[in-house]
Amino acid sequence: MADARNRSGMTERRTRYARDPLGLKRALSDRLLPGLVAAMALLAALALAGSRGAAALKERWQQGAAAAVTVQLPPEQAGRMDDALALLRAMPGVASAEAVDSARMRELLRPWLGEVPALPLPSVLELRLENLNIDPAPIGRQLAEAVPGAELEAHGIWVARLAALARSVQGVALAVLALVVGVAVAVVAVATRAGLASRRQAIEILHDLGATQGDIAGRFARRIGLLAAGGALAGAALAVPTLGAMASLAAPLSGGVVQPWSALPWLDLLMLPPVAGAIGWATAQFSVRRWLKRLP
Amino acid sequence: MVRFTAVGLRYPSPDGQEGPEALADLTFTLPEGSFTWLLGASGAGKSSLLRLMHLALLPTRGELEVLGVRVDAARRSALPGLRRRIGVVFQDFRLLPYLSAFDNVALPLRLAGRSEASLRPDVTEMLRWVGLQGKELSLPQQLSGGEQQRIAIARAVVTRPALLVADEPTGNLDSHQARRLLALLTQMNRLGTTVVVATHSEDLVAQFPAQALLLEDGKVIHHG
């Protein structure tokens, strides 16, 4: 019984050592590198979420505001509201035309004008164009001919500015992501060099016994790829509550609606460990093969 | 067969420039299946010559042929396979300190892709032969210098190499173990392995007469 246990223990130990003749489990700490990669994965997740969020905002603003046009009739033309609506609804390119009722107008103006029921207010119509490419200027001209004094105001310039802002935010987020990837490559390269330095003699022995460059580089790459993937998994896990909290903070930007958990960028989060593992694997392969060139 | 033709070797100097030639104009041939003593004073170049033979170094000039392969002209990718056909006993043992005696001896077989089941009998037999049965799980630092040297020897011969080079293999062995080792080396030589042994021991050379290569200041001054 004891012999069987000993044999089993010996076999297990041999198998373990056979898998790691360079002693990389000791040379490459399973704490420092995964910890650093976890922090970078968290930053990458925030940058990715920021980029996705900015893209979604840009889309939303363009979809919602760009096609919206406001039409204003002077108070003396208030009685021709129905004519104006009929004219606009008949025009090509107009998806819808609705009057803004006076109660809503007063509500919108109250913060600036206070309670001023006697003040004459213009009649306002809201138009939605069928798409962003329709030029609202001819619509305004036709309306002004039919209803003198009618003015049309498109929101294109504001939408363009908001879209530019969203694009800037997206660009910054992608730049941060690129920076994180660059730092990750540098960290993995430094960790690989530290491992090479501490296992220099073992590498030379394996090399002299006939190990190929691919064999040695592959052992480093597998270990570092695994550590990087593990670190990224931890970072992605940390990112979930962080992104949840940030979604609550960003609720006013999305019309006061708190995004549900299902709206988190789950695919991006799931991709972080394999991508980090691949970056670690490739960086280690490159670093070790370059180092091995000094051996014959 | 090992053939040196006008081989020279320079180590780089600390400032990155080429240093003086450690070995110069080496021209000799060791026939397949031969046994050769490599003799010379300390610093004569014996270890450098052995390192050229087991491809830990490449010549800086001349032609070097090992086991039918022109090493100086071969592609890098061809060298690992050639190294696996060469057994090496290093002067400083060069055991991996975190591997057991068994795993150190099994290392060349594992690098060659042998399965765990098939390598176990060979490794166990080799450890038994060098008198280390029962110490399979011992780490090198738990063993004496002589025992470590025997592990290094077992690791060098476990693959039944076509060429075996040994640098002072009896340095840490008592006379009994040294004779046993030489008996193993001559036995392998009879089975066709080309054997080259560097030594300072005149007694050993006297007990096992064979052709000798005498080095002095990086040059061969006697071969025969």
UniProtKB/TrEMBL annotation, chain B:
<dbReference type="InterPro" id="IPR015854">
    <property type="entry name" value="ABC_transpr_LolD-like"/>
</dbReference>
<dbReference type="InterPro" id="IPR003593">
    <property type="entry name" value="AAA+_ATPase"/>
</dbReference>
<comment type="similarity">
    <text>Belongs to the ABC transporter superfamily.</text>
</comment>
<dbReference type="GO" id="GO:0005886">
    <property type="term" value="C:plasma membrane"/>
</dbReference>
<dbReference type="InterPro" id="IPR027417">
    <property type="entry name" value="P-loop_NTPase"/>
</dbReference>
<dbReference type="InterPro" id="IPR017871">
    <property type="entry name" value="ABC_transporter-like_CS"/>
</dbReference>
<keyword id="KW-0132">Cell division</keyword>
<keyword id="KW-0547">Nucleotide-binding</keyword>
<dbReference type="GO" id="GO:0016887">
    <property type="term" value="F:ATP hydrolysis activity"/>
</dbReference>
<protein>
    <recommendedName>
        <fullName>Cell division ATP-binding protein FtsE</fullName>
    </recommendedName>
</protein>
<feature type="domain" description="ABC transporter">
    <location>
        <begin position="2"/>
        <end position="224"/>
    </location>
</feature>
<dbReference type="GO" id="GO:0005524">
    <property type="term" value="F:ATP binding"/>
</dbReference>
<keyword id="KW-0067">ATP-binding</keyword>
<dbReference type="InterPro" id="IPR003439">
    <property type="entry name" value="ABC_transporter-like_ATP-bd"/>
</dbReference>
<comment type="function">
    <text>Part of the ABC transporter FtsEX involved in cellular division. Important for assembly or stability of the septal ring.</text>
</comment>
<dbReference type="GO" id="GO:0051301">
    <property type="term" value="P:cell division"/>
</dbReference>
<keyword id="KW-0131">Cell cycle</keyword>
<dbReference type="GO" id="GO:0022857">
    <property type="term" value="F:transmembrane transporter activity"/>
</dbReference>
<dbReference type="Pfam" id="PF00005">
    <property type="entry name" value="ABC_tran"/>
</dbReference>
